[in-house]
Amino acid sequence: MSPRSPHRRALLLLLVIMATTLLPWSQATSYTDFLKRHQDNPKSDLQSDSTYCNLMMQRRHLNCQRGNTFIHASEQQLTSICNSRGKNLDGNQTSKTLFPITICTRGKGLRRVFCRYKGKSKIKRIRVTCEKGLPVHYISHA
Question: Which of 3, 10, 20, 120 has the lowest tally of Cβ within 10 angstroms?
Answer without folding.
Answer: 3
